Here is the input.
Amino acid sequence: MSKFVTLNNGAVIPSVGLGVYLTTAEDASRIVYESLKAGYRHIDSAVFYENEEAVTGAIAKWLKETGTDRKEIFYTTKILKFGDEAKPEIEKCLEKSKSIGYIDLILIHAPLANSEGRHGAWVALQDAVASGKVKSIGVSNYGAHHLKQLLEYPDLKVKPVVNQLEIHPWLARKELVKYCRDNGIEVQAFSPLVRGYRFGDEDVVALSKKYNVSEAQIMIRWSLQNGFIPLPKTVSETRLVSNLDVFDWSLSKEDMALLDAKDEHFVSMPEWDPSTNPLD
Here is the structure.
């Protein structure tokens, strides 16, 4: 199992990242710094999280203290502005990340606009890539219908490198995942730990005992073995370490099938469900 994934534009992204959703700026500053010490090299933030400056500040502090090359860190943020409002939103993101020089990946956080608005946002993101200040662009919470429309833009110059979705054993989104992969788009899995709602599941508990790992590690490893890029969130320094300790062991084919069979379209965050967002 590789610790890195190569995106469709040739960029390389670490295959496990730290999510900082619902993390205060104070906690984000601490946990991001500690995550880098623990070996994380991929941090996922967003304008909506209101912690971008804390995240990039922690990255900058760690880079300076360790002398590590900026290229070793992959930083993601997301915008929720569309049309003519997208460009100034991107500029704000760049301003908040000036301590680290550039942004590795910006996503459209969700398709919460009409077709014209989404198109305008994508054009603005393409311009940001052309400027060199943003290395890659993608989307989040996009359904196949949104992706199809995007890929058919007459002025499409840059394909999305990822689609970030809620993905876990109870929400596998097989058809959408297949569509992404058929079009060379990697799938990032947010809420890979189901926001804690499925801790205590008897099969997951049994597997954690069998492999002598945590329930969270079982879920993260399931995500990796399915080819996703999981983004587990924690504010616990102890769990930071264990959540990343998922590369030197693997789930058996039978145990993967056991977890695969749990798919019941359980959406823990329905407000971000792409199937509920029409094209217009």
